[in-house]
Each structure stands twice: as C-alpha cells, then as structure tokens.
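Run log, item B.
One chain of 50 residues. Sequence copied directly from the ordering sheet:
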Amino acid sequence: MIVELKAVSLLDEVHRAQCLNYLKATGLNVCLLINFGKPKLEVKRVVSNF
C-alpha cells in the first residue's frame, strides 16, 4: 500500500494519475490519497487494474 499525502485545495485527476504511476512502478495494488488542504480530511482509495 502506498500513502500519498497532499495539502491542496482540490484533489485533481493529476493526483490520481500520480498514484497510478506509483502503483505501476512498484507493483503494488492500493494507494491511499490523503488531502489535508481542506477543513475536513479527504481520503481517496486508488486501486490499480494491472
């Protein structure tokens, strides 16, 4: 599992693509994308289909 920490106002498709690239490079299957840039914590789960 990869944990990607961000502090941005909005999670974009670019952040998801970065997680997918990390997953492909490492051979892992799951990435948690965590954003601390909003008043409420935002967590997205990204799963590879490789």
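Observations after the first pass:
- The beta strands are 2-6, 30-35, 42-47.
- The two ends are 15 Å apart (CA to CA).
Flagged for discussion on Thursday.
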